Amino acid sequence: MLTLITFVPLIGSIAVLLVPRERHLVIKWVSLIVSLVPLALSIKLWTDYDPSNPAMQNVVKIPWIRALNVYYYMGVDGISIPFIFLTALLTTLSLVYSWIIVERPKEYFFLFLFLETGIIGVFTSLDFFLFYIFWEISLVPMYFIIGVWGGPRKEYAAIKFFLYTLVGSVAMLLAIIGVYFHTSPHTFSIPEAINQLPFARNFLLQSLAFWAFFLAFAIKVPMWPFHTWLPDAHVEAPTAGSVILAGILLKLGGYGFLRILLPMFPQASREFAIWIAILALVSIIYGALVAMAQRDMKKLIAYSSVNHMGYVMLGVAAAAALTNGMKAGDKAIALSGATLQMFSHGLLTGALFFLVGVIYERTHNRDLDQFGGLGAKIPIYAGLLSFMAFGSLGLPGLSGFVAEFMVFRGSIPIFTVISALGVLGVVINAAYLLWMLQRVLLGPLNPRWADVPDTDAREVITLAPLAFLTLLIGVLPSFMVNTWQNSMLQIVSLVGRFVGG
Length: 501
Description:
Elements: H1 2-18, H2 24-48, E1 57-65, E2 70-76, H3 80-97, H4 105-124, H5 128-137, H6 139-149, H7 154-181, H8 190-196, H9 203-220, H10 229-236, H11 239-264, H12 266-292, H13 297-320, H14 328-363, H15 374-377, H16 379-393, H17 399-411, H18 416-441, H19 457-475, H20 478-495
């Protein structure tokens, strides 16, 4: 099943290339139907998953390059399954939203399906060789999506995105090679490398490998000070590109911390946890303050991602910290909250970027000072924007609140001062989102927008599933948390190896 989920979009992208260029509608329908296959399979994968077993499930392991001990090795656990579903969902919704694309739709829809294969491949890979290939595959289509269909500074944004990510990729490749040569027998298997603990007897080498992986994942998250590619990429990317970028691509970094960094380098993780926590705090406060200063609605949402992913990294740091065994439960809660925050952020920020796109299509304007009074004029849009903004600011009953509460519940006993300061980010977060709502929806109506139409059926179809899941997780978070709870406890136990040794 994992092979199908991963490669059906790739096969579909090839099918799109075979459709004559002028058959726009056929291209779009083929792409949409193909995207529904991994979505349906990911739902089945989730419903069939046994959360009581933290081991990898649906494992596929076939020899690939015997000389290097490389395997076609795939599997999923409670951490990867929700993100496979999120990838499939946001890809399908992005294709629905992009139905109006008229500029080179053949290449556009091909790249989105190709990108889906790359991202799902990262979440299913259990071999470093395979993991790295999919990691790089996810980079190339987004470069072209930004560079071809982006805004006025699209070339600059695309190259900046590519170079930042490439630096991280090179660092990760060096670390992977180091891990390969420090396992016996040499292996690219991620679970086997975690069991062997490469560099366990050489803390200097372990630290170098740790920081190499850290750089790759921190750029992707992105953490301060590696975040500067993000605002440009978001502002210049087409709407659906921004949705995939914020909703899924950023999660590859957080996933890397959970899948590789913490369990493979427990000693370095414990040693450097305080520095991760400090960088997370800076991301939380800095992202919120800079978001508050924005006039561009899209750039405001972009900087909010730096703020929200800072909470993810605070949870990761808490799980990595050196504490006594009694705090293992707190660590698992913090890590579970971080994972829920990633999923929730994918829903909420994806929806907010869709909503920015909706208003931009009608007004060709994103300047918050140019809006006002639209709440009465376009009530469906106003309701959706308010709902998603309230979710993003952490209103109880919606997914953002549960995620942030769990992160702070788990991190406060471990990093009390840093977590307390991090709560300020929640306050600032609420301030800039409410300020955005006030400037867009309230006050006198700008006469320029007197004839702006409300959201249409295509846009409501795109946003409704995200709104539903935001509410469902806020009211009933247990179905999410139970999926990965045992996987979190396993990571915490792996990080706790050799304490005091």
